[in-house]
Fold this sequence. Notes:
The protein is an alpha/beta fold. It folds into 2 domains: 2-120, 2-Layer Sandwich (Alpha-Beta Plaits), CATH 3.30.70; 122-313, Rossmann fold (3-Layer(aba) Sandwich), CATH 3.40.50. It is 30% helix and 30% strand. The chain contains 8 helices and 14 strands. The chain has helices spanning 12-24, 76-93, 111-117, 163-175, 191-198, 211-224, 254-265, 284-293, and strands spanning 2-10, 29-33, 64-71, 104-110, 125-127, 131-135, 147-151, 181-185, 203-208, 230-234, 245-251, 268-280, 297-304, 307-313. Helix 4 runs parallel beside helix 5 (191-198). The longest helix is centred in the N-terminal third of the chain and has 18 residues, at 76-93.
Amino acid sequence: MDWMETAVHTTTEAADLISEIYLQCGAKGTAIEDRNDVPHGDSRKEGFWEIVDPNLTASMSEDVLVKGWFSLEQNAQECVHMLSERLKALPKTAEGMDLGSLEIETKSVKEQNWAESWKRFYKPFRAGEHIVVKPSWESYEKKDGDMILEIDPGMAFGSGTHETTFMCITLIEKYMKKGMRVIDIGTGSGILAMAAAMCGAGEVLAIDLDPMAVKVAAENVEKSGLSEKIRVQQGDLLEKVNETCDIAVANIIADVICALSAPVKSHIAEGGLFICSGIIREREDDVLSALAAAGYTIVEIMRKGEWIAVCAGR
């Protein structure tokens, strides 16, 4: 199958929002290319992308690029037109957000080119004290105490290389106790659900609205041998969730975290935790205010690059 690849020129702040708009317009997958996501200097000492090519940023655009792929067999032109119209309206609906130029580039690509090209950005790295995230096509020499989380993110969000995913894994490893119940909201590739299971969770519900993400997450969970602990389910956030958990995890965007903070509380047991990220630093106060209004107590705030993650107690 052939694809139309589009790239929207934007900013770190708006990248996740535009990625969501892509999916709403029918994109079969998205990817964010952001120089800020490539560690440099002291950040390499923390194990984050520890073997990545230090010259990688030289080949990247000065702008943040959000790329999306539309099938040429399924009305790609109409989808791109819809994307264009949504982007034109964005300055009014996202008032105050730095959106960048929102310029759109398009080109046709073969499926093999798409499936392979992004892999050059993805190398093994350490998240937290013991978890090492490793793509299925890379080798890694295991060290004492390592827990290897092997994953093939495919077309779903969540390779682990983004600061938000990295921080969520770190917080999961820090606060997880054996036998805890976990709900991973917007699971993407399933990486956080798998990290929770590897850190001792007894039961994990991984939920996502996107059927492609559900497919990818289910495949990763099965390959990892964690199917007995993790149940992958398609659904709109918590609409179809009746379970109660000890830890809820959501790595989405700030606006969704703010809207989610109150309703998710009813799914967290007394004394449980809400670990959330996908929050740009400029939105930190908004998220903290929403969490406070919902009655949470802030346990820990992590900051990395332009992003933050929050661990809040119920």
